[in-house]
Design brief:
By secondary structure, the protein is mainly beta. The chain has strands at residues 29-30, 39-44, 49-54, 59-65, 70-75, 81-85, 90-94, 101-106, 110-117, 124-131, 135-141, 149-151, 158-164, 170-175, 181-186, 194-195, 197-199, 206-212, 215-220, 230-237, 240-248, 258-260, 264-269, 279-285, 294-299, 302-308. A hairpin with a 3-residue loop joins strand 10 and strand 11.
């Protein structure tokens, strides 16, 4: 059975039975000075490892192994990084520059794909791509622990990635049961999720959800229904997201999750989508887009991305 993954070019999508090889073993290592630097964590779900780079020079500073199919990532204000182990049914937390988990949460409901940390409460949101025998949902671990509370939008079946805004509202990208793009929100204090309409563009395959100030950024791994990645900028009014601009990434095949900042967009580029080449980790100018201003190779299927600041 094919592994359901966050990357648009994954074979077998949207088959969702997560049967595949176990996590590969390897050596976990980090440079001694890594904890003193700003770090970029890239989950390589193809190699079952997380590569750690110093940022912005993208020098390999270490590697974390033993996570069973790492995919989505998120970081908090302390620099701690959460990584979803989709096939391991876990969400694993590492301290900035750390080599051993400081917390491991089990997912009781499905296959964890993405995560986000609420800046107002420090709650951890985890998106389940699917449940064990049905649709996915969003789990909220209060203050990053304990038994999670589950939330879902009845019109959304698959839950990919998520992001909080500054007021504690959670947004999740995904798909309907018919594989149409879907976007939902769990408003702060609400007890269920609701769908959002998108006006001004058609998105085809879900990816990044991010906030840059008051701008909502939505990644599309199949921009224009082609094997190219782009990022739409939008403004939210009520239950409607109005697209105000788009950033095209030249040569980017499938950017599943990216870190979006005021002047840069950082993520992994899966370049094997029928066009040859190798995967890479790239920094693109934002919002201009185009070709990367910095790129390193050596990855197979980079999916998750998170920046972590030294304390």
């Amino acid at each position: 059975m094919a592994l359901a993954a966050l990357v648009a070019c994954s074979p077998g999508w949207p088959t969702v039975a997560l049967q595949g090889p176990a996590a590969r073993t390897g050596t976990t290592w980090l440079r001694a000075d890594a904890a003193n630097k700003k770090l970029l964590y890239i989950a390589d779900s193809g190699k079952f490892i997380v590569d750690v780079y110093t940022f912005p020079d993208l020098t390999l500073a270490g590697r974390i192994s033993g996570i069973n199919r790492p995919q989505g990532e998120c970081s908090d204000g302390d620099g701690n990084v959460w990584i979803t182990a989709t096939q391991g049914l876990q969400i694993v937390e590492y301290a900035h520059g750390g080599t051993k988990p400081i917390k491991v949460l089990g997912d009781p409901a499905g296959y964890p794909a993405g995560c986000a940390v609420d800046p107002t409460t420090h709650d951890l949101a985890v998106t389940n791509l699917t449940g064990f025998s049905g649709p996915g949902e969003v789990l909220i671990y209060r203050h990053g622990g304990g038994a999670p509370a589950a939330y879902a939008d009845p019109h959304q079946y698959y839950y990919f990635l998520a992001a909080y805004d500054a007021r504690g509202n959670l947004y999740s990208s995904g798909q309907t049961a018919k594989a149409n793009y879907a976007l939902s929100v769990l408003r702060s204090g609400a007890h269920k999720m609701s769908g959002l309409a998108i006006k001004g563009a058609t998105l085809y395959f879900p990816g990044t959800v991010a906030w840059v100030g008051s701008t909502l950024v939505l990644g599309d791994q199949l921009c224009g229904n082609r094997k190219e990645s782009c990022f739409y900028r939008g403004s939210l009014s009520g239950t409607t997201v109005r697209i105000t601009g788009v950033t095209h990434l030249k040569g980017a095949c499938a950017v599943a999750q990216a870190v979006v900042e005021a002047t840069e967009l950082i993520g992994g580029n899966v370049a094997q989508c029928g066009r040859g080449g190798k995967g890479s980790v790239d920094i693109w100018p934002y919002p201009r887009g185009g070709r990367p201003i910095k790129s390193v190779t050596g990855v197979d299927m980079p999916t998750g991305a998170a920046l972590s600041n030294a304390r």
